[in-house]
Amino acid sequence: MNLKKYLDQQVEDCLASAGSPGAPAVVKQAGKPEFGHYQANGIMGAAKKLGVNPRELALKVVEYAEKVLHETATLEIAGPGFINITLSPDFIASKLTGMFADKRLGVTAESPQKILVDYSSPNLAKEMHIGHLRSTAIGDAAVKVLEFLGHEVIRANHVGDWGAQFGSLLAYMDRLENEGKPLATELKDLEQFYQKASELFRTDEEFARDAREFVVKLQSGDDACRSLWQRFINESISHCQAIYALLDISLTADDVKPESAYNDDLTEIVSALESKNMIEISDGAKCVFLPEFTGKNGDPLPSIVQKSDGGFPYVATDLAAARFRGQQLRVNRAIYFVDGRQALHFNQLFAISRKAGFFDKSQDFRHVPFGAILNKDGKPYKTRDGGAVKLADVANESISRALSLVGDKNPGLTEQDKADIARVVGVGAIKYAELSKNRTTDYIFDWDTMLSFDGNTAPYLQYAYTRIMSIFRRATSDNELNNVAFRLEEPAELALAFKLLQYSEAVEGVTEDFQANVLCTYLFELAGLFMSFYESCPVLKADDETRDSRLKLCDLSARTLKHGLGLLGINTVEQM
What we know:
Elements: H1 3-17, E1 27-29, E2 37-40, H2 43-50, H3 54-69, E3 73-78, E4 82-87, H4 89-101, E5 114-118, H5 132-148, E6 152-156, H6 165-178, H7 183-186, H8 190-203, H9 205-220, H10 223-246, H11 266-275, E7 279-282, E8 285-294, E9 300-306, H12 314-328, E10 333-337, H13 343-356, E11 364-368, E12 373-374, H14 391-409, H15 415-435, E13 443-444, H16 447-450, H17 458-474, H18 491-500, H19 503-513, H20 517-536, H21 544-567
């Protein structure tokens, strides 16, 4: 149950009964959490619309509301016309009972849509680097939340596997094979492989000529060249899947639909644009000029869909992908999690696609941008030699650091337990560090902060979960918790209970603007309120009825923490 939506509807109904039909209700949480305070602020606007005194309208609303909400809450008028709503402990307990019995923890499924989520999308010419963390982590959390809310989600990993850069890679592979060198060994480090091929292209004219010939062969469908290319692609995808497995990302090889998959559609895309009279020739290239896109001097900005040499830039491939998603998959929504620096590209892409009819007005195609990851100096996070940090190295470093922390915290664990816990903590730390930040802003990558057991971090939340599990390992009650009644008497109990009831609001809030930090903040606050409850309200030493009620509160807190972290793609452990 979403408490805010429930109260919104109640206040709207009361406004309508008081003579203000259709007035928007604005209910928000107010005051200390332990008292379950909300405040209805829609009265002022409604009174202005009706031309009446706000306080007089508030009196009418309260008169109607008290008939409806008399067992739910107490209401009082504050200031010029605000209405303070205080939920009763009995109401909170009754809704908490429903949440406890619900496998979905009170979160209602939405009307299902077919939603495609385009995320991660690495360039297969190189290994995944830390810059891919944001798209990958944010996108995977989004698909998990959307699926939980009842939507049919299509994961789309639009990997880069085409273009001129592959000419150098294929020429280098060909040279290695001719020299009898083991190709599999060389491909183990894709980054080094790419660097060697690029260096040869810059310094060896014969190699550069061969590389350009390989591009032509690749694009013309030469069988031998395609076979060599496919070997490289398969190896690259296996590298990506190893990263996804390490980071517990739900993308599979079946979710890959690469740029090359649309290669045969590119001439059709140009023809379709020409049939709509959208193509203009500029310096020999086929371009689309839309009036809403201009440069600083007011000149129109072109979107090149076919170069003067006949080649196709990636906007053509993206147009083909948009048409496929809009017309063949018939998605209701397509969400693209891509770096904010690509905003102009996607604005042009979607504008062209709409005008060309590649998807219709009812279909929502949207670019969801994000900022950059920075080092402590506020500069892009790179290696000492200026290269991008490999994502595999980041994950392994985090796990290694977590292993040391776990060993210090609980030296009595077995080595295998330490390793298992370290993997969960290390991976969770880097993902949560990403997800807990505002998606659109840059953030500083700081090992000490993200692996801390204090503050808004994954280790803190994971540790809070283990604290609850330790209570149940020590509990001796044989009572079935389903039959236990909640007794909410202490302020810390009410505060924790009230926060638990806001879980559905937090989950639904993630997809409003795809800000996972909404759920992160909720879980952090929930963990903090549980710690306060645990410190001020004895559980196992309380009398029988109070003990069982508090155990039930502990159980629901643990389930909510575990479930919320799971939606973020973060695992929990039973002890730490």
